[in-house]
Amino acid sequence: MAKKKVNPSSKENSNPKTVNLQPHTEDSTGQMMTTNQGVKINDDQNSLKAGDRGPTLMEDFIFREKMTHFDHERIPERIVHARGSGAHGIFELYESMRRYTKADFLQTTGQQTPVFVRFSTVAGSRGSTDLARDVRGFAVKFYTQQGNFDLVGNNMPVFFIQDAHKFPDVVHAVKPEPHNEMPQAASAHDTFWDFIALMPESTHMIMWLMSDRAIPRSYRMMEGFGVHTFRFVNDQNESHFVKFHWKPLLGVHSVAWDEAQKISGKDPDFHRRDLWESIEKGIYPEYELGVQIIPEKDEHNFDFDLLDPTKLIPEELVPVQRIGKLTLNRNPDNFFAETEQVAFHIGHVVPGIDFTNDPLLQGRLFSYTDTQLIRLGGPNFHEIPINRPIVPIHNNQRDGFMRQQINKGRVSYNPNSLGGGCPFQAKMTEGGFTSFSEKIDAHKVRQRSSSFFDHFSQAKLFYNSQSNPEKAHMIDAFSFELGKVETVAIRQRMLRILAKVDKGLAAKVAWNLGLHVPSDKDIAEPLNQSIPADGKPEDFQPVIKEPSLKASAALSMANTLKDSIKGRKIAILVADGVDNASVESMLSALSNEGAVGELIAPRFGLVESSGDAQLVADKSLLTTASVFYDAVFVPGGANSVAFLEADADAVHFLDEAYRHCKVIAADPDAMQVLRATRFGRKFPEVVTADTPVEAGIIVNSNRPQLEQEFITAVSQHRVWEREDERKVPA
Ligand code: HDD
């Protein structure tokens, strides 16, 4: 196996996990082809035959080896989160957490820990679209000096169910229906909403799932959450409760639903490509790690249960402290070896981090190892390079399929005298893991605490916290999803649940579905829901209460960071005769802000500019579409403008960008291209610096002003208010 050459002074080599992966990394550059036994291969074109037209010989070990390996290439995909994309990176601590935890990687300011991150959708298969309306996984493996710590979170801070016992049910309900395996990567079907309408505890999560959070613009622009309440334990054995957050430095942004559906067809790898290309270009995705810390004594001070994973702690009640930064700076060398074989487990913790009795968390502690056993084929999956810790492993576990480690000596038990008692157990002071000694004195029961029965107050809090455009998107999302449900009774049941969150929301969805708005009497009726066989429905009804907060700013994407266009993609529509100076000036203004401008021409090849310079088209109108860009610029140049104005694809490009609320800028002499669109028919023919056209439409004869206004407008992400009046049928 040829080792990949590493420059000893390179950044790659300073990452301990990259160094740890090196002995397992192969690079065939300049090498001869061999069998898996290392025998050089002379002919990789033909099998061995009895005569050139005769049968293949059994003896052909080269053919047999090649074919057998190929026949066994596939492994089972993950039961959930099958579709994912990974990246390597570094976590750097800003602020020591020593007061709260003895976790080594959270002790010293400036300390760096290598990480591998996998983002995913939940419901779809491995080859499904990135743009499904779905939860996104955000799983981080920290390779710490005390062993691996996995923070296996999502981009939503709550979950569908309160008890892991219901996980197979919610997953069966959302996956394609078992009789006909439809639909793929979509929750818009009967079985999902049948289950949800019978599970009021899902209501809060459903609000998140029907919000724009479920259709992120990029993995770089979404939050992450550990969801459960965990524990930090310090070296005095004192415990604090902790919630983990990831806050993207580019803010939290989404695409429009119509855009998502189109991207799904035109580039189902959209998020994967965005992550890959950003890292290749050095525009590294960055997220700050936030913690909400709650002293043990405050456990019961909230109007919800800290152990209930359908609840979040509003940031107004417990602020999020940002304690470090995650930077993703290296793409994997091999998708299968790294992204597919990485095995996360919520039970991979290090001293200083511990669990709580959240019943969802407790059940997850079983499921993750169990699933790797079938998916990765046996108990040695921790030896797969991407899963290995950067510290050595010493224990008495032995053998099993695909064992890699060669354990020396005759001893594989403890206690022993023949091995000098090795490997030793580590004292607490030596970093030995000890579970937090929480006192438990209880009856063994299959029950749920009544403190888990408030299913609507935080769903209301979430809805009330949304901006008007966000609320409108949620109404559309519910209407779309329930509109795809064929069983009318399920739609009706769901409307009753929505009415308990917000009557206006229920009324608007009911209108779109052509159904009656649930009456007050309907709303007051006990809910039909899942209960144990001997349970009385009245004992299981949700507690109806108002949220203690009216709204929480952190829950709305409208309040997110909007100060940068770093990593944004801007389309520049050009044709022969385009004003070269305008294009160059815009490209450099964008690049100074870390954004990427792409020239889109009617066809590939060279574009002759008005200044006789030749530009190279990055994309042609045939191979790309407005849905891949955050904004559009139309430069001047008489011939280019005349061509684009008459080109249906160029006009459609602009109309669609407008429909998806994107910022559009143009040189004043390109005004006629805008006037050829559906939205620009009434725009003035002449625009100067003093005549604003419309929000999000930037035309200005003062060039520096035009660029500045464009950059500021793009940093605002979208002009959602434009949706109030749907002018364009795109
Ligand atoms: Fe899970 C994968 C996140 C509840 C059982 N889960 C998986 C992944 C993420 C999450 C991000 C993909 C990891 C990767 O990229 O390889 N899961 C969550 C979150 C949950 C949650 C944030 C609720 C707070 N999960 C959950 C429950 C169970 C599971 C309640 C079962 C009791 N999850 C699994 C699994 C998976 C998984 C079946 C499939 C593949 C894998 O583990 O490695 O074990």
- Rounded mean pLDDT is 96
Secondary structure category = alpha/beta
| Uncertain segments | 1-9
CATH architecture of the largest domain: Beta Barrel
Total DSSP helices: 20
Q: For the terminal residues, how far apart are their CA atoms?
A: 54 Å
Provide the CATH top-level class of the largest domain. Mainly Beta
Bound small molecules, deduplicated = CIS-heme D hydroxychlorin gamma-spirolactone
Total strand segments: 18
Tally of separate domains: 3
The named CATH superfamily of the largest domain: Catalase core domain
Shape estimate: globular
Which bin fits the share of residues in helices? Answer: 25-40%
Main beta sheet: strand number and arrangement?
Answer: 10 strands, antiparallel
- Rg on CA atoms, Å: 29 Å
Structure, described:
Keywords: Heme, Hydrogen peroxide, Iron, Metal-binding, Oxidoreductase, Peroxidase. It comes from Pseudobacter ginsenosidimutans. It is an enzyme of class 1 (oxidoreductase). This protein is α/β, with parallel strands linked by helices and 730 residues long. It has helices spanning 11-14, 16-21, 61-71, 167-174, 190-197, 203-209, 257-266, 270-280, 335-340, 359-375, 457-465, 468-483, 488-501, 503-513, 520-524, 580-592, 638-646, 648-659, 671-675, 703-715, and strands at 84-93, 112-121, 136-144, 147-154, 224-225, 230-233, 239-248, 286-295, 321-330, 353-354, 569-573, 596-601, 606-608, 614-616, 619-620, 631-634, 663-666, 697-699. The strands form three sheets. Strands 1, 2, 3, 4, 5, 6, 7, 8, 9 and 10 form a ten-stranded antiparallel β-sheet that branches. Strands 15-12-11-16-17-18 form a six-stranded parallel β-sheet, sandwiched between helices. The longest helix is centred in the middle third of the chain and has 17 residues, at 359-375. The protein is globular. Bound molecules: CIS-heme D hydroxychlorin gamma-spirolactone. CIS-heme D hydroxychlorin gamma-spirolactone is lined by residues 78-81, 84, 118, 120, 137, 139, 152-154, 159, 164, 167, 227-228, 309, 342, 344, 360, 363-364, 367-368, 371.
